[in-house]
Write a structure and sequence with these properties.
Layout (H helix, E strand, L loop, with lengths): L5 H10 L3 E5 L3 H9 L4 E4 L3 H4 L11 H14 L4 E5 L9 H13 L5 E5 L5 H9 L4 E6 L5 H4 L9 H17 L3 E5 L3 H10 L4 E4 L7 E4 L1 H4 L18 H17 L14 H8 L1
Parallel strand pairs: 1-2, 1-8, 2-3, 3-4, 4-5, 5-6, 6-7, 7-8
Helix pairs in contact: 2-4, 5-6, 6-8, 8-9
The protein binds 3-methyl-2-oxobutanoic acid and sodium ion (NA).
Catalytic activity: (6R)-5,10-methylene-5,6,7,8-tetrahydrofolate + 3-methyl-2-oxobutanoate + H2O = 2-dehydropantoate + (6S)-5,6,7,8-tetrahydrofolate
Subunit structure: Homodecamer; pentamer of dimers.
Keywords: Cytoplasm, Magnesium, Metal-binding, Methyltransferase, Pantothenate biosynthesis, Transferase
């Protein structure tokens, strides 16, 4: 039913066809993204920042992702949907991780999951793939570990870091991941990783050498996101501004009795009006 699958994605990498990915969190965002021809939708835990108003992804729960995934799945029935496993839902044990992943698949109706981390999570990646669930890796800046990393910093700037990223990428491919998100990685390192792997890399703030790109919905359209002005984001519209001025106009119309106007009202039969007012 989906236009894309992980076999076709690998083929697209081979043929040099870039993959477009965008986050979505509800029915309308998913529907519009699908209509616009996006390759893949991510129900990202960036949900915490741009939809729920938290200042990190750490408070996002499995229930939150399941709830929003269901809405996205209803809005984009023909698009390959990936959901994030949230903070600390895949670290206690493999079996507990698989229970959460089962919920995303069976209750959230997504087609794949994304896990942050490199070689250290390869056991969970292997077990998930063995269960028939495609896994998208995510290395570089991993926001769930922001307190460990010490901020939202660019990764891969020195040789040790670059080497570690390359090793993590290879470990994820070995473990069976179908692709890897590279977040805030220098262009040189992201390009080298993309060339080394046979699975597609999907970059965000990772330069031009990646096999695909991903952006956060609210950043792309400037929809009340505090992050749209970041260097790695390209904004295509000011939808937040459009919504604000529309609501301002509505408020002004109500205050000035310009709304409702004649075309918005319903009329009763004249005889009823006569009976009411005499
Ligand atoms: O949650 C998210 O939106 C993400 C992307 C930025 C890759 O993980
Ligand atoms: Na995320």
């Amino acid at each position: 039913k989906q236009a894309l699958n992980i076999v076709k994605m690998k083929k697209m990498k081979k043929e040099g066809i870039p993959l477009s990915m965008l986050t979505a969190y509800d029915y309308p965002s998913a529907k519009i993204a699908e209509e616009a021809g996006i390759d893949m939708i991510l129900v990202g835990d960036s949900l915490g920042n741009v939809v729920l108003g938290y200042d990190s992804t750490i408070p996002v729960t499995l229930d939150d992702i399941v709830y929003h995934s269901r809405a996205v799945a209803r809005g984009a029935e023909h698009t390959f949907i990936v959901a994030d496993m949230p903070f600390m839902t895949y670290h206690s044990s493999v079996s507990e991780s698989l229970q959460g992943i089962r919920r995303l698949m069976q209750e959230g109706h997504v087609h794949a999951v994304k896990l942050e981390g490199g070689a250290e999570i390869s056991d969970v990646v292997k077990a998930t793939v063995r269960a028939g669930v495609p896994v998208l890796g995510h290395i570089g800046l991993t926001p769930q570990a922001v307190n460990q990393i010490g901020g939202y910093r660019i990764q891969g700037k020195d040789e040790a870091d670059a080497r570690r990223l390359m090793e993590d990428a290879k470990a994820l491919e070995q473990a069976g991941a179908f692709g890897i998100v590279l977040e805030l990685v220098t262009e040189e390192v992201a390009t080298a990783i993309s060339k080394e792997l046979s699975i597609p890399t999907i970059g965000i703030g990772a330069g031009r050498g990646c096999d695909g790109q991903v952006l956060v919905y609210h950043d792309l359209i400037q929809y009340a996101s505090p992050y749209y002005s970041k260097r790695f984001v390209k904004t295509y519209a000011d939808v937040g501004g459009l919504i604000r001025s529309s609501i301002e106009q509505y408020v002004s119309d109500v205050k000035g009795r310009a709304f409702p106007a004649e075309e918005h009202v319903f009329s009763t039969d004249d005889r009823v009006v006569e009976a009411l007012y005499g």
